[in-house]
Amino acid sequence: MSQATARAHANLAFVKYWGKSDHALNLPLNNSISMNLSAAYTTTTVNFAEPLRSDVVMIADDGTVSPSFAQRVSLHLDRLRALAGVTTYAQVTTENSFPAATGFASSASGFAALTVAAAGALDLSLSERELSILSRQGSGSASRSVPAGFVEWYAAETSSDSYAEQIAPPGHWDIIDIAVVVSSREKDVSSSDGHRLALNSPFWDARLAALPTTLEQTRTAILERDFTVFGHLLESEAMALHTIAMTSAHGARDGAWRSGIYYWTPDTLDLLIAVQNWRADGLTVYFTLDAGPTVHLICPARQEAVVTNAVRKLERQRPDRKWSLLVSHPAPGAHIIPLD
Ligand code: DP6
Questions:
Q1: What is the DSSP string of 313-327?
Q2: Closest Cα partner for 150 from 140, 138, 135, 164?
Q3: How far apart are CA 101 and CA 104, in angstroms?
Q4: Mean per-residue pLDDT over the chain, rounded
Q5: Fewer Cβ close by (within 10 Å): the C or N end of the chain?
Q6: Closest CA to 155 of 21, 305, 49, 294
Q7: How far is CA 178 from CA 199, 285, 289, 295, in A?
Q8: Is 113 in contact with 329 (CB distance < 8 Å)?
Q9: pTM above 0.90, yes or no
Q10: Which residues line ligand 1 (CB under 6 A)?
């Protein structure tokens, strides 16, 4: 086979990956735990073809990709070519189920789909662990999009020990993520820069010291389907990440000193406060956030309508708000899509 198509879902971290011990290999400083998201996925076709004189990377229905993205893809294909012992260039066509700049890390689903499609096209027979390790090198969080459902990615000193594994399959727990996209503005500080700057925070050591307990308790809460314990851990962990970010002093963007990174917009904060009040009104819902303004509302699936209504009511309080919602259930891992 020289061509294959694969699909991988984006994932949402409940315990976050923030800080690396090795930036070239994307080795994380701590384990992280996530869930694959059914509504957010990337479908990628890789076709290794002799006549090509360079890799060609395209977004389906659009065409253009930035040179830096194309280069990152090419670099990743080199890793797979080296494993297969070939030098053939490839045409890569990729498509996201979610619009760009919605606060979803398309790099996770993107690099997991690229890895699985390229391995398939090169007839490499790789284990889930090997696919996770390779995906990680494209983008750290992509390692977690390889296994299905609820997943943990291990921090390790060597590349071969830092991979993600399933904690529980997608059907284990009927919880959903209602992603509230409050802004489509591109963030000022990329995740990659955020990982570097995190260690500038005076609270960094405290976070790292608390994480083993957080990880243990989160894993157990998932396995026992204990939504209350899970919710408390989830929301506290999101605030820990953003406390680190907001105290990561830097002069990264334009040389001007900043005391920290603010990934939020005023709408983000309005939602965080509202969620806490909704709970006081009896709603079962908690939030988490990644490195962006999108608020992820986590609730039991049966609460979808009532939580969605509460979000829409809050949105209508200000006429300038235009939020979009994306609802996801726990999703499968990265997989090959058979040709028609
Ligand atoms: C805040 O995986 O995007 O979403 O390894 O540099 O590509 P790179 O970083 P990336 O970082 C994701 C950070 C996060 C938390 C998480 O997903 O765990």
A1: HHHHTSTT---EEEE
A2: 164
A3: 7
A4: 94
A5: C
A6: 21
A7: 31, 10, 12, 8
A8: no
A9: yes
A10: 13, 16-18, 26, 32, 105, 107, 139-141, 191-192, 195, 290-291
